[in-house]
Write a structure and sequence with these properties.
The chain contains eleven helices and eight strands. The chain is α/β, with parallel strands linked by helices and 245 residues long. β2, α3 and β3 form a beta-alpha-beta unit. Bound molecules: cytidine-5'-monophosphate. One of its GO terms (cellular component) is cytosol. Homodimer.
Length: 245
């Protein structure tokens, strides 16, 4: 395995969206040896809990804990402290929670780090607009005027000003975010669909190659791998496409 492959595979975040640890473990066996990031979201975390996350870390995986915290600052601070103690590499909050809430997440992480020198500082990122949100939904349902792009850039700038490491957004917005916030600001982009795969509930989708060319730091892929007949082949194909981009 060469360095470029390792580096690119490390930018693929596989969403372990499963109802229990056994099913997630089956995918891990399937993908064994591919040095990708693993994402634990609400479905798996609420079923398998912190033990599953610790187990992933013991096995050497990079872990993104995707719990999208959105609560009053004090509660998010406590949540971030507990999450950081799990030793995860990345976690997130909703930018819509505002500046004080985002800063509280950083304070919670710092508190955990100060109490345990063996912990590594996690990347703390914020969700801008969910990739399932389309223009009509943003304007008519949620009541935010303007384009999805405007809302995303506004959230990205707010996130950066609060001192976080980056944002979750659609890959379609990654280039604009980099222009607004600079290249050092991380963009994690779900809503990735290799050509010919089912779009599902995602609205703002791009292929893996388009996402990398567009400036995504990391791409998040769930169903195109987890629901594939051959998940390992699907993951290898995605990494190949990322490398070619
Ligand atoms: O199956 P699919 O590839 O659509 O999975 C995308 C993953 O990324 C899911 O785990 C979803 O929760 C997550 N996600 C998202 N949009 C965001 C943030 C996270 O789709 N804005």
């Amino acid at each position: 395995m060469n360095e470029r492959y390792r580096e690119m595979a490390g930018r693929l975040i596989v969403a372990l969206d499963y109802p229990d640890a056994d099913q997630a473990a089956a995918l891990l066996r399937e993908l064994e040896g591919i040095p990708c990031y693993m994402k634990v979201g609400m479905q798996l975390y609420y079923a398998a809990g912190p033990d599953f996350v610790r187990d992933l870390k013991t096995r050497g995986y990079k872990v993104f804990l995707d719990l999208k915290m959105h609560d009053i600052p004090n509660t998010v601070k406590g949540g971030a402290e507990s999450i950081t103690r799990l030793g995860v590499d990345m976690f997130n909050v909703h930018a819509a929670g505002g500046t004080d809430m985002m800063k509280a997440a950083l304070e919670g992480a710092d508190k955990a780090l100060a109490s345990d020198g063996s912990l590594k500082k996690p990347l703390v990122i914020a969700v801008t607009q969910l990739t399932s949100t389309g223009q009509d939904m943003l304007n008519d349902e949620i009541g935010i005027p303007g384009t999805v792009r405007d809302a995303v850039i506004r959230y990205a700038e707010l996130t950066q000003a609060a001192g976080l490491d980056g944002v979750v957004a659609s890959a379609q917005e990654a280039g604009d975010i980099a222009r607004a916030c600079g290249a050092g600001f991380i963009t994690v982009t779900p809503g990735i669909r290799p050509a010919g795969s089912d779009q599902g509930d995602q609205k703002r989708v791009l292929t893996p190659g388009e996402a990398i060319r567009g400036g995504s730091s990391y791409i998040v892929v769930g169903r195109p791998i987890t629901a594939a007949e051959k998940p390992r082949t699907a993951a290898e194909q995605i990494i190949k496409e990322m490398l070619e981009a």
